[in-house]
Write a structure and sequence with these properties.
Oligomer: single chain
Number of strands: 13
Strand content: 15-25%
Structural class: alpha/beta
Shape: globular
């Protein structure tokens, strides 16, 4: 079976890149195409010998590719990909705009419909488009991106996704059903320490992109609790501004490989997860290490963090709400073995088996008719995630 994999950007190594790496490992002969990436990130994704970047991976493009946003859908749709039996895309932006030379059946693992065009337009507008004229231009761009995004979604034969939360967004934005297959956690790498004692710091791991990751909000929270220490692992375009605004009890470690990240997760009091992510691998990786999570009660965390069992959920993305949870947090109230058992529901080997089944069904033409039917024309319950008493707190409960 010939598979071609597409991805958006490999600028830094984050959750989407972890998912794409699992795809590439499950289909080791598949070339991996993306709009732009760093060779170092491609090496970490274990695709150094088979990745293709539509744009040349030059420093100026890697730092400023967001300014090319109006042209990126067309760049993807006009790229010359080889023939295949299945196109498998890992998309949070434009990867589902790609197509193969023979228009192979397309299975899209959708991390999220394009955030700035659909779900976070107001937040991105406040950050990137100050002033009336810039705001009007941003609104025009968002409308254009929604049109192009929806057209690309219509050409997808089957949508996969991480959680019911993203499935609802796919239905709302694209009028399409999706199959939740979870997301991959490497429970062999992320595992508890032989010494289970918690350290004296809280940990935030994130791609440093504001306002999406809410790092500044977390810094403001720890400014209110100077006796609590915050360690931040990650890099991104907002690093300079965040570091300049940080209180004395916050420190930045930059980008870390798993070998350096795992000991931090094993030794922290808790991982703080303030963003409304579509899924969020970091909370589950922390839980696989046996550590609890303090997470915002929204997005994918609602389906992965079990209150008072694997962590705590706070109701508002505000410094006050985060500070209150940190002050009240008791790491001794959590059982590392119970936390890890919960995380293992998302183990990478289970994920890959579900992924392969979906791709093989597409290659055999078994999924196309039902999955391409718009959601509003499908029978009630079609494609729905199974729910019931077993759905919580056991993690993934799809097909």
């Amino acid at each position: 079976m010939r598979v071609v994999i597409t991805h958006d950007f490999a600028e830094t190594y984050g959750g989407a890149e972890r998912v794409t790496r699992e795809m590439a490992e499950e289909f080791p002969d598949a070339p991996v195409w993306m709009l732009l990436g760093r060779p170092a990130v491609a090496r970490r994704m274990a695709i150094a010998d088979r990745w293709h970047s539509v744009l040349p991976p030059r420093a100026r493009l890697l730092s400023g590719y967001r300014w090319l946003t109006p042209a990126l859908p067309r760049l993807a749709s006009h790229a010359r990909l080889p023939e295949a039996d299945v196109l498998l895309s890992s998309s949070y932006a434009f990867a589902h705009h790609f197509h193969t030379a023979n228009r192979a059946p397309h299975v899209c693992y959708c991390h999220s419909p394009l955030r700035f065009a659909w779900s976070m337009t107001a937040e991105y507008k406040r950050t990137w488009a100050g002033g009336r004229l810039a705001g009007a231009g941003f609104d025009l761009l968002a409308r254009q991106m929604r049109r192009e995004d929806r057209r690309a979604a219509e050409r997808v034969d089957r949508f996969l996704t991480q959680s019911p939360y993203v499935g609802e967004r796919i239905r709302a934005c694209y009028q399409r059903e999706s199959t939740p297959i979870g997301a991959p956690i490497d429970c062999d790498t992320f595992k508890p320490s032989p010494d289970p004692d918690a350290g004296d710091f809280f940990l935030l791991c994130a791609r440093l992109v504001e306002p999406y990751k809410q790092v500044m909000t977390t810094l403001d929270a720890f400014r209110r609790i100077p006796d609590a220490r915050l360690v931040i692992a990650g890099d991104g375009p907002a690093m300079g501004g965040l570091r300049a605004a940080a209180p004395p009890n916050a420190s930045f470690l930059g980008h870390l490989d798993d070998d350096d990240l795992v000991p931090l997760m094993q030794g922290c009091r808790a991982v703080v997860f303030p963003s409304k992510d579509d899924f969020g691998l970091i909370p589950l990786e922390a839980m696989a290490c046996g550590r609890p999570v303090i997470a915002y009660d929204g997005g994918g965390a609602r389906h992965t963090v079990v209150a008072n069992v694997t962590g705590r959920l706070f109701a508002a993305q505000t410094p006050e709400a985060i500070a209150a949870e940190v002050r009240a947090f008791d790491p001794g109230a959590y059982d590392p073995a119970v936390i890890r058992a919960h995380a293992k529901n998302w183990d990478r080997h289970r994920f890959r088996a579900r992924l392969r089944e979906a791709v093989e069904r597409a290659a055999g033409g078994q999924a196309t008719a039902a999955d391409r039917t718009p959601a509003h024309r499908r029978p009630v319950g079609a494609g729905a995630l199974r729910t019931g008493p077993a759905a919580r707190p056991g993690g993934y409960d799809g097909p």
